[in-house]
């Protein structure tokens, strides 16, 4: 009798144990495996440190509020949206740049960043900014996959890539430094802004198609910020006195038009089994600018670094004066939000991440 009871108890324990194992595996298999990022300086966590370019943020005061006050190459006083995303989905605290030679296989397996400051969807933009083009960033992703296949095998690599979350954030430089910049190459080829917008969409579509061909299933595509509210853009485009700074309405209209096109067109290239979603950063940024006191800000038209009117990259350096309290500033320099600003942008995207990428 004792033997029969013991056998039955063992059988029950065995069945329950296997059910729990299957449940645990299913939960693990449905969670996000890694985070991968492509784009420009708003999401570059340090790749430009390793390429020949002047667009770098790997010196003080950049990184002033990053752990150990380290200037990692992030264009802010601290962490960026990709870092918050990686932490939020539970893969790692901060997302490293792929070109960092010290990365281990374990680092690679939970995601890396391929973005490059100065980049745009338009390859000419990246050339002007001495940055990695979107095509070159994708080539690095292919190289990444090959490395991982050698280390953990093709089957595990394919599974990791399939379950990963992807963030693509680019395009601002195409309009600020390229089409509306001092070199009129693109304006000659595309006389109207709508023509250039269509050209840019063709480049975006091709990049996303290529990324999906590489196995990406969960992709968030970030829209443009209110370009007309970036401090340096206000400075270079405003006809009003410095004491009366306002966003450039026409450039904000441009951002909204491009974002609407992007949101509409993404639906048309959706593939079965793939989540391709538009991520709105225009709304949280314009809200911070127009309702700064709601977030505890005091300054929304200047950056913290230097005069706050135009400085970025090498213009924000160890000899540049800083504001007394960066948490009172929406922007860190003339183009990039402060860490607090990036945190607020990330918070606005949480529900999108939970529903589509995590």
Descriptive notes:
With 358 residues, the protein is of the alpha/beta class. It has one domain: Rossmann fold (3-Layer(aba) Sandwich), CATH 3.40.50.1110. Helices cover 46% and strands 9% of the residues. It has 13 helices and seven strands. The protein has helices at 2-30, 81-88, 105-109, 123-128, 134-152, 154-163, 172-179, 185-189, 193-213, 231-237, 249-268, 282-290, 339-357, and strands at residues 35-39, 111-113, 165-169, 218-222, 275-279, 299-303, 329-331. Strands 2-1-3-4-5 form a five-stranded parallel β-sheet, sandwiched between helices. Strands 6-7 form a two-stranded parallel sheet. Helix 2 crosses helix 13 (339-357) and helix 5 crosses helix 6. The longest helix has 29 residues, at 2-30. Mean pLDDT is 92; it is low at 1-29.
């Amino acid at each position: 009798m004792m033997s029969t009871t013991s056998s039955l108890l063992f059988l029950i324990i065995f069945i329950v144990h296997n059910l729990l194992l299957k449940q645990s595996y299913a939960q693990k298999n449905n969670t996000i495996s890694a985070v991968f990022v492509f784009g420009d300086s708003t999401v570059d966590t340090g790749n430009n440190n390793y390429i020949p370019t002047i667009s770098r943020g790997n010196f003080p005061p950049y990184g002033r509020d990053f752990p150990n006050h380290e200037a990692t190459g992030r264009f802010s006083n601290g962490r960026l949206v990709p870092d918050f995303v990686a932490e939020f989905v539970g893969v790692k605290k901060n997302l490293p740049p792929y070109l960092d030679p010290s990365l281990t296989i374990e680092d690679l397996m939970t995601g890396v960043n391929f973005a490059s400051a100065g980049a745009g969807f338009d390859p000419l933009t990246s050339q002007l900014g001495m940055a990695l083009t979107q095509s070159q960033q994708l080539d690095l992703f292919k190289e990444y996959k090959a490395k991982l296949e050698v280390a953990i095998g093709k089957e595990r690599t394919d599974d990791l890539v399939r379950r990963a979350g992807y963030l693509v954030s680019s395009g601002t430089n195409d309009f600020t430094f390229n089409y509306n910049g001092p070199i009129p190459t693109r304006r000659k080829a595309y006389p109207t802004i709508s023509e250039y917008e269509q050209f840019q969409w063709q480049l975006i579509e091709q990049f996303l198609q290529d990324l999906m061909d590489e196995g990406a299933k969960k992709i968030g595509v970030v829209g443009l910020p209110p370009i007309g509210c970036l401090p340096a853009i206000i400075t270079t485009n405003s006809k009003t006195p410095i004491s009366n700074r306002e966003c450039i309405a026409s450039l904000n209209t441009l951002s909204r038009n491009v974002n609407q096109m992007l949101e509409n067109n993404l639906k048309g290239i959706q593939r079965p089994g793939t989540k391709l979603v538009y991520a709105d950063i225009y709304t949280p940024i314009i809200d911070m600018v127009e309702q700064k006191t709601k977030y505890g800000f005091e300054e929304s038209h200047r950056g913290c670094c230097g005069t706050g009117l135009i400085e970025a990259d090498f213009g924000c350096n160890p000899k540049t004066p800083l504001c007394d309290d960066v948490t009172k500033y929406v922007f860190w320099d003339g183009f990039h939000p402060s860490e607090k600003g990036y945190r607020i942008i990330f918070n606005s995207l949480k529900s999108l991440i939970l529903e589509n990428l995590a």
